[in-house]
Design the sequence.
RNA sequence: GCGGGCGUGGCGGAAUUGGUAGACGCGCUGGAUUUAGGUUCCAGUGGCCCUAGGUCGUGGGGGUUCAAGUCCCUCCGCCCGCACCA
């Protein structure tokens, strides 16, 4: 018989789905809407198998929901602005636009090859002016609403390339291309006031019930709400400090009596002022600034301080002067950029105090410890306790002391209780070419002037070169020279472009009406489709992209664009696809296709030299452990690849791609094909009436069929694709065992095949269409409803109950479902294995969990 | 450094969320079939004890409970994020 020809079948069904517009979504439907979206890709080149797990998961959800009667929107687009296009331009002398669009063409073809059920009429590319013109308008609206503003902030500056570097381009303090020591520089940049929504973004997290807890927790920590107090320390030499006082923020105002120093950020104005007259301090600050702007770099750097000689007056202790230091671990962006150090009750302060021989005075004594005996060693005490050595706070618990200290500061008018957030405003300026131009003009007379709406889009000029360092927009002969929209005099365009998170913060709304020209999307279409019912993507976006999108949606609502606040009602974060890594003798990485197995040893195919097999790692070009999409689809077909991507691992965990795995998936596909096309018993015609009675085997298999329908449906609802696949394999095994010897076997086999084919439809859509046709159906499977389980067949009359003695399993008993405890108990006590285990000992207690377990305690 | 996660047979993972640990698959072993060649079918497969049966077993250690992979404490290992990669 003919074998399943994946190539032929996949091409055929893909064309048919396309020609019949099976996946195009409309807003006019009486079915409930369902919007499923996978995080859209950056068009970086060519997809490998690891990239498509995400889209396969989304596709299963889309096809499943469609079968369940939903009006499904499942779009795809391209997050097309970004740094790699510029890197390619510099490295290969190819224009970013050319590079990007070529990549898009390749990747679109690859996604289509996988048979993904997208509505391609809604495809968008964010680098198109048709897209980014709308976000320029949004920015102007934000500006008018006070949500966008300019301020100075620090960047990584490469003095050789004359450019700003991304944190990932700074490697051990040096520019990745130039190798030059990176400096921190201050630039005037645009910011979006996400902090205005901090409380709202935090408060709405519990309502995101279909988000993973871990993501909500990460966002909560990122927003980092903390309550405490601001307080001002008078300085002993206001002239030298340039200010009469230094304001600090603390969450531990209760420990003020244990303060032994003040620390200010190297970027604090007072530090800058003191450095003017102190070259050593200036030197110290310069060294701090060499660390780079990433928080990880700052936090892992050795804690260092510099004594300024300045002193600050303790607000509660008359005459006590605390030294003021500049410390590299104090962040200017958080709180006030200055802290007071209480070494006894903060680990970082303690480390600092030990290093610079500052006093350590415990002021919180743990309950039940003698205050006289309590000392601090290498570990700060941060737990609860009672205040000592603390004047008016003595005897209070920590919380009460915080309250009392706060009130006293307020009464003295030197501070107030307050709340701060770790969250900082979103810097959206990038000194880059391949991004959306920020639509403002700088005029010497009028300052910053928004580009009038009628002149949008501010289009990115395409005639640029990358032959010298810096931003090509700066070097363009004409582009930035315009007349001021306000006064008409010569002025300069803003040459910064937006952070690419800007585009991805509203693309999900654009998909609702991607061809809308007047605004980013029609309010009506957005009202219909939003929020996204199920969003799917990697955890690496748990904070930034998702938080920015949540903020953006609120900001858009505030500007009258839409009427939802949360863009994503459901979120699933999928794990990585991993693959073994291979290294040649010389240590260089090898692609999987460069190796082979000879006599049980892994060797290099080219010359038989030994290969070291490394651990599983995320598929990445740099380690060469990638498997190309075309290679897999050519050899096994898209359905086999899809099956493997959904098998074995739950979606939120890593998945191992292996040659054995793909072979196993391929075998199952063929097994299923044979079952339906060459059934063990000839099938009755489609739609034949059910027989009068079913024999034992037929009844058992019918139960299996209906249980599988129920359980698989439940698995898909919960996104347990790996379990769903396991159940489908089990049903396939059960059906294959039918031999036609029992009454109704043939009819049940058809019933089972029909159910099975419909259940595998979302996973292996091409094969399923082919089998649906083979079963004698004229209709398309994609237009066929999801099977329904018969409740009468999903529950068993008897259940197997485990019997334990003292928690150890001794027997299992078949019992009637929901048998009474007394009956179950009697059956258990009569079991020979139980009697033997009891060994005549007195029974103390019997625990009966209905339909599960009986535990006899002796 | 801070934040988040993960850890179950040789391997990927199941376990109705505190109730029979190892579903399903990969691999391996033995057998059958076939014009052996991405075959197919049957049987077996956590460790230890000679089997009936017993005993140990979910990264290590401790605890709560009639009962712990699941809850608590602690330690170890690995992975992800940290604001200009997307």
Sequence:
């Amino acid at each position: 018989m003919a074998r399943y020809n994946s190539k032929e079948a996949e091409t055929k069904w893909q064309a048919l789905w396309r020609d019949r517009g099976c996946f195009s979504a409309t807003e006019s439907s009486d079915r409930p809407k369902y919007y499923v979206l996978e995080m859209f890709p950056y068009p970086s080149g060519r997809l490998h198998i690891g990239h498509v797990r995400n889209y396969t998961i989304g596709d299963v959800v889309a096809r499943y929901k469609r079968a369940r009667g939903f009006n499904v929107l499942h779009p795809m687009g391209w997050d097309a602005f970004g740094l790699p296009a510029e890197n390619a331009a510099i490295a290969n002398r190819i224009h970013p636009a050319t590079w990007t669009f070529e990549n898009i063409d390749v990747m679109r073809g690859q996604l289509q090859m996988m048979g993904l059920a997208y509505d391609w009429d809604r495809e968008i590319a964010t680098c198109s002016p048709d897209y980014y013109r709308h976000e320029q308008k949004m920015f102007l609206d934000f500006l008018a609403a006070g949500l966008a503003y300019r301020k100075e902030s620090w960047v990584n500056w490469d003095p050789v390339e004359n450019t700003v570097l991304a944190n990932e381009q700074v490697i051990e303090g040096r520019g990745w291309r130039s190798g030059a020591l990176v400096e921190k520089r201050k630039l005037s940049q645009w910011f979006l006031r996400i902090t205005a929504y901090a409380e709202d973004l935090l408060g709405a997290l519990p309502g995101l019930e279909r988000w993973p807890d871990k993501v909500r927790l990460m966002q909560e920590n990122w927003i980092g709400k903390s309550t405490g107090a601001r307080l001002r320390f008078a300085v002993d030499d206001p002239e030298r400090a340039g200010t009469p006082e230094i304001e600090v923020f603390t969450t531990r105002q209760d420990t003020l009596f244990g303060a032994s120093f003040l620390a200010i950020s190297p970027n604090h104005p007072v530090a800058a002022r003191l450095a003017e007259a102190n070259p050593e301090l200036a030197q110290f600050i310069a060294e701090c600034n060499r660390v780079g702007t990433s928080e990880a770099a700052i936090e892992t750097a050795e804690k260092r301080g510099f004594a300024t000689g300045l002193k600050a007056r303790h607000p509660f202790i008359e005459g006590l002067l605390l030294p003021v230091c500049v410390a590299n671990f104090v962040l200017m962006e958080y709180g006030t950029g200055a802290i007071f150090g209480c070494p006894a009750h903060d680990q970082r302060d303690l480390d600092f105090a030990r290093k610079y021989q500052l006093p350590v005075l415990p002021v919180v004594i743990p309950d039940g410890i003698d205050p006289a005996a309590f000392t601090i060693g290498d570990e700060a005490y941060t737990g609860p306790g009672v205040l000592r050595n603390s004047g008016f706070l003595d005897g209070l618990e920590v919380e009460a002391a915080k309250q009392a200290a706060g009130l006293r500061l307020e009464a003295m008018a030197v501070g107030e209780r307050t709340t701060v957030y770790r969250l900082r405003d979103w810097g959206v300026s990038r000194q880059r070419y391949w991004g959306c131009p920020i639509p403002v003009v700088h005029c010497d007379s009028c300052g910053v002037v928004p580009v009038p709406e009628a002149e949008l889009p501010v289009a990115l000029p395409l005639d640029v070169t990358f032959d010298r360092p810096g931003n090509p927009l700066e070097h363009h002969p004409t582009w930035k020279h315009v007349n001021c929209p306000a006064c008409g005099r010569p002025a300069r365009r803003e040459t910064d472009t937006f952070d690419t998170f800007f585009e991805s913060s509203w693309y999900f709304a654009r998909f609702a009406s991607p061809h809308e020209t007047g605004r980013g999307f029609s309010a009506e279409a957005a009202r219909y489709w939003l929020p996204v019912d199920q969003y799917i993507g990697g955890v690496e976006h748990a904070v930034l992209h998702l938080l920015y999108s949540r903020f953006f949606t609120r900001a858009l609502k505030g500007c009258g664009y839409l009427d939802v606040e949360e863009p994503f009602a459901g979120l699933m974060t999928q794990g990585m696809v991993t693959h073994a890594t291979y290294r040649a003798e010389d240590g260089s990485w090898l692609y999987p296709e460069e190796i082979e197995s000879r006599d049980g040893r892994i060797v290099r195919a080219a010359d038989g030299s030994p290969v070291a097999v490394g651990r599983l790692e995320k598929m990445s070009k740099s380690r060469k452990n990638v498997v190309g999409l075309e290679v897999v689809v050519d050899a096994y077909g898209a359905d086999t690849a899809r099956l493997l991507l959904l098998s074995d691992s739950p979606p939120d965990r890593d998945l191992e791609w292996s040659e054995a795995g793909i072979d196993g998936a391929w075998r199952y596909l063929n097994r299923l094909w044979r079952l339906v096309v060459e059934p063990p018993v000839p099938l009755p015609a489609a739609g034949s009436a059910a027989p009068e009675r079913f024999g034992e085997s037929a009844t058992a298999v019918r139960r299996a069929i209906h249980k599988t329908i129920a359980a698989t449906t439940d698995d898909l609802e919960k996104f347990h694709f790996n379990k769903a696949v396991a159940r489908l394999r089990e049903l396939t095994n059960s059906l294959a065992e039918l031999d036609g010897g029992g009454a109704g076997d043939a009819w049940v086999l058809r019933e089972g095949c029909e159910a099975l084919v419909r259940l595998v439809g979302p996973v292996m859509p091409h094969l399923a269409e082919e089998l649906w046709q083979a079963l004698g159906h004229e209709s398309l499977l994609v237009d066929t409803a999801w099977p329904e389980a018969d409740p009468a067949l999903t529950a068993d009359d008897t259940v197997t109950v485990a019997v334990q003695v003292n928690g150890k399993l001794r027997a299992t008993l078949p019992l009637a479902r929901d048998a009474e405890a007394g009956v179950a108990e009697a059956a258990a006590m009569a079991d020979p294995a139980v009697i033997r285990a009891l060994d005549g000992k007195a029974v103390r207690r019997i625990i009966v969990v209905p339909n599960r377990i009986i535990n006899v305690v002796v």
Chain A has a mean pLDDT of 90. The CA atoms of residues 801 and 813 of chain A lie 5 Å apart. The first helix of chain A runs from residue 6 to 19. The two ends of chain A are 64 Å apart (CA to CA).
